[in-house]
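Continued from yesterday's entry.
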Amino acid sequence: MQEWDNHRWSKISLHQTNFYTIVFILLLTVIFSSLLIYDEYKDFLKTAQNGIEIVKGVPLSSSLSYQDLPKTRLIKVMVEIATLALILFGFIVGLSKIVNSMIARDMERFFEFFESVYQKTEPIVPHELYFSEFKKMAAYANEMGLTIEEQKKSLQQLNESLEERVRIKTQALERKNSALEQEREFSQGLLESHKQFIRYAIHETNTPLSVIMANIELFSMREGRNRYLAKIEAAVKNIFSIYDDLSYLVKKDQVDYPKKGIDLGEYIEKRLEFFDEVAHFSALSFHYEKPAFPVWIHFNETKLQRVVDNNLTNAIKYTKSDEVIGVGVSCSVVECRFWVQSRSVKIQDEAKIFEAYYRERKKTDGFGLGLSLVKSICDEENVAIAIDSNDEFTRFEYRFNKEGNG
């Protein structure tokens, strides 16, 4: 209830207060006059009952009876009281109006001051106000207005400074962005030129490699094989493997590689035949555990060749001399496995060997791209990779999911 009263009175205006004050004074005047008239009326009744009325210094006219004197006096007194009450009420209302107008004028000056604070502060002149309390308030208000004006100027200067800094920073960023855009275009041009060069180099390399291989086979058929020819053939096959890797890297984002049914066991056997001369040249040999029945997977042949060839060439590079490289294919109900195992130096960091250009043995030939390429193909085709490397052997195993590839 108290909260409701506070809320109600907090919304009352100065004009409403003036109105309520006048109504209150009028009510008091009416009550006061009524009480006086009521007292006089009681005296009148008492006199009328006793039949005694004393009129001092008032002569009776011949037309006015003895009983009419109290009534005449009552009317006179009532008129006097009403007149006095009206005069008193008018005086009080006039005085209230004057005081309220003075207060309203002082308050209006404060309203004008607070409205001007938003734009340009116009100080209040204390001697123009009527009341000492308002003059004291004017001093505080002027001090507040001066503080606000100073803060506004300070904020304006700060905003101007910030805007200038932002403008300078924006211009610097625009220049940097322009330079970066030029560098990006230049780098893009270099990259495109690099790709174009590789495309041309691959295209031009294919023909001489094919000619070399064809002439090696013709020479072997006519003159028979010899040690020097075997070395040349092994080197050319290594070049062919690198050529196929580069060709795939250049075309993989531009060419669609459709899948087909491949007998994994037979396919691995053909690739072992291709690399047999290369292994023999390095004093190595293959031991192939061929499955008893055809092992079919649904895969792209180009991608499968990259996985198989890179594992075979890596085994030839890193296997110790005069050792046997184990290769095998097996199949279960849910997956087919292809694995390569040999005696080689233990892999120090199995996670990094799939990163591009990473090589644990710096002296070994190659770019370090083979296993990175294999990893990207296996990720694309959902082929799981398992590595087991220790001081005795290193084994790479690839698991082709039949459901994912069938």
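--- second protein ---
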Amino acid sequence: MKFIEDIFRSAGKMFEEGKPLHKLYPLYEALDTFALTPGTRTKKAPFVKDTVDLKRMMVYVVFALMPCLLMGIYNVGYQMLTAKGDEVRLVEAVWLGAWKVIPLMLVVYAAGGFWEVLFAIIRRHEINEGFLVTGMLFTLVLPPSMPLWQAAVSISFGVVIGKEIFGGTGYNVLNPALTARAFAFFAYPAQMSGDSVWVALDGVTKATPLAVVASAERGSAAVGALQAAGYNFQDMFLGFIPGSIGETSALACVMGLAFLLLTGIASWRIVMGCVIGLVGMSFAFSFAQGPQALAFFSLPPHWHLVMGGFAFGAIFMATDPVSASATQAGRWIYGILIGVLVVLIRMINPAYPEGVMLAILFMNIFAPLIDHGVVQAHIASRRKWVALIKADETR
């Protein structure tokens, strides 16, 4: 490690003030802090006891996403082999999946990283580590057949419009990865939705579980329609279904959640709020079943939890510390409303059966208002108690 540190310190002299490569200092600083620990240390008290800085936090989230990435790679290959009617072998499935997923991820990181470096150089500040997570998240919410150039354009929109125009990491109102996905969904609908995008083979179509329920006849049983299409709860929980690269496996998402909770990165209140909102709203809709009701009305709440991108969105997207609510009570409200909106969009709008992306983006906008309301309620409560104490003292 000393040898690597000496190389970085020697190369760093070329990026100092007045040297030829000074304008590229943010790029050098990003590589330096990624490879080594930050070189700055606190000289006097007070000292920070926690060693989890921004870089380590972002790296922890990337680690938490590894189960989703690995399962996504395997599932892409699994879907390709089953679509062709071939025997599914582990090595072949991983190879086929990696051949589709890794180039997509590299393009996303290259295009988004370009804008990150450009804005850092223009503003003369360090490159934020947040894009390590943004690039991974955006890749995992794409279908495996997404054209590379469209992924590059979409992540460019997400980074520039969703984050950089607000000032960069820590100032963004919306989740950048979801902003990029929203752009891709509305700009390239044929490549982001429909039965032909989930299996990375030309001419092969396969409906996702959400699409199966959305297209089922009115008054029919949602679970029956899913089973008739070859889907069962176990496969949906494990992730052996068509869908976005990293969203299909609820188990992989839960594994990532366990790591985030153990390291104190994610807010369990937001995740639990999302679950409570979704289960409560779907249970309420179950009383509105009728002969002409959409099939979604008969879908049990626990099936909602493993369908689409709910688990992935609730764990990795809704818990974004920048765009989510910051107060304790606000996190409960924020999460519950996300769960409620997901069910409303799925059931009321069969043309768009997912709902997770729009629900989180919508609540990103209202998060500051929720926190403001919580703070004002606390202030009003404190004023009431202060008034009571003063009244007692004057007696």
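The mean pLDDT is 86. The longest helix spans residues 356-394. Will compare against the first tomorrow.
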